[in-house]
């Protein structure tokens, strides 16, 4: 009996599956092992914890693993790739296959067949596979350069929108800080309706409460810190503000959905170039934003439908780690 290790290494969490030729034996989750997101000691501790739990659950020693497939964003970045290769060589037997996280999600959706996969979580990316087997990717250039529709962009762009509103509306920062310091009830984030709409007050209070910052000056300092804060953690706050009628938050969610749809359409057109006439790529999606943030999901789907009304869109969120498992087995010559 052969054993396979599949890993989906995200920016905040890492999922692991240990399987044999025909079934999954155990699945565990730890913090991230992605070196762009954490230090080497923490990544190593998270990996050791997962491997220990997998062995405890199955009795399979890591030296018995035949193939391992790791899917992660930034798989071509030396800091990420070099650490993963060294870490697994020291801890796990067999061959290691290192792929992009969007590629393993594409495999989970279509198992090597043509199609387009849209991923939006902490970051974002789009990948497509043509009839020729050629892989194309769109986006995925990281938080500073891309990540349209991602949690990072939603949080960051909401704050940018709030500060632009301060400038456009002549928002009284000093009065805001004074009121917030004086009135603890209002500082809790339960603002009156007149502060919703175009005013940045709702967003500002929500974010400052979450980060426990007393004044807007402290928010400016924290938001521009190096290293930067994790803006993706603000996603739920932005969604909540949008639900309460905040125009700034609403605009951000609409814009991020549109930008992500543009990437998806670009990938679909590329995949079509080598396809039979009239063929439209099927589409799948994955990631916490597309699973949990309805305005982005619905806006993305509407954008795709406007361009490709006949496109088949898989209804369920794809589990990327199953693509990594499929790849690990395929590398070993096993077909399931």
Determine the structural class based on helices, strands and strand pairing: alpha/beta
Q: How is the largest sheet built, in terms of strand order?
A: 3-2-1-4-5
Q: Count the strands? A: 9
Helix-strand topology string = EEEHEHEHEEEHHHHHHHEHHH
Number of helices: 13
Largest sheet: 5 strands, mixed
Label the overall shape: globular
Write down the Rg: 22 Å
In the CATH hierarchy, what is the class of the largest domain?
A: Alpha Beta
CATH fold-level label of the largest domain: Nucleotidyltransferase, domain 5
Just name the CATH architecture of the largest domain. Answer: 2-Layer Sandwich
Low-confidence stretches: 187-195
CATH superfamily label of the largest domain: ATPase, nucleotide binding domain
Percent of residues in β-strands: 15-25%
Termini, distance in Å? 14 Å
Determine the fraction of residues in helical runs and give it as a percent range.
40-55%
């Amino acid at each position: 009996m052969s054993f396979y290790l599949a890993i989906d290494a995200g920016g905040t969490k890492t999922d692991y599956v240990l399987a044999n030729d025909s079934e999954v034996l155990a699945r565990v989750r730890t913090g991230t092992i992605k070196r762009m997101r954490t230090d080497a000691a923490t990544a190593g501790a998270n990996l050791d914890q997962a491997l220990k739990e997998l062995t405890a659950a199955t009795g399979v020693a890591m030296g018995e693993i035949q193939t391992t497939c790791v899917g992660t964003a930034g798989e071509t970045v030396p800091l990420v790739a070099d650490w993963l290769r060294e870490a697994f060589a020291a801890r796990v037997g067999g061959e290691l296959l290192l792929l992009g996280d969007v590629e393993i999600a594409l495999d989970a959706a279509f198992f090597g067949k043509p199609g387009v996969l849209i991923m939006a979580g902490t970051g974002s990316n789009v990948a497509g596979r043509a009839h020729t087997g050629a892989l194309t990717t769109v986006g995925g250039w990281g938080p500073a350069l891309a990540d349209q529709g991602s949690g990072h962009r939603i949080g960051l762009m909401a704050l940018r929108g709030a500060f632009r509103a301060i400038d456009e509306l002549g928002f009284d920062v000093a009065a805001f800080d004074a009121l917030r310091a004086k009135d603890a009830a209002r500082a809790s984030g339960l603002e009156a309706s007149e502060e919703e709409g175009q005013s940045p007050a709702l967003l500002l209070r929500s974010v400052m409460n979450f980060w426990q910052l007393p004044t807007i000056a402290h928010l400016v300092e924290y938001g521009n810190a190096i290293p930067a804060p994790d803006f993706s953690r603000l996603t739920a706050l932005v969604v909540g503000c949008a639900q309460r009628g905040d125009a700034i938050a609403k605009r951000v969610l609409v814009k991020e959905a549109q930008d992500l749809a543009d990437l998806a359409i670009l990938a679909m057109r590329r995949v079509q170039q080598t396809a039979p006439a009239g063929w439209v790529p099927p589409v799948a999606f994955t990631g916490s934003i597309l699973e949990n943030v309805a305005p982005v999901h619905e806006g993305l789907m509407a954008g795709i439908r406007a361009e490709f009304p006949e496109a088949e869109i898989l209804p369920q969120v794809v589990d990327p780690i199953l693509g990594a498992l499929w790849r690990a087995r395929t590398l070993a010559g096993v077909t399931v």
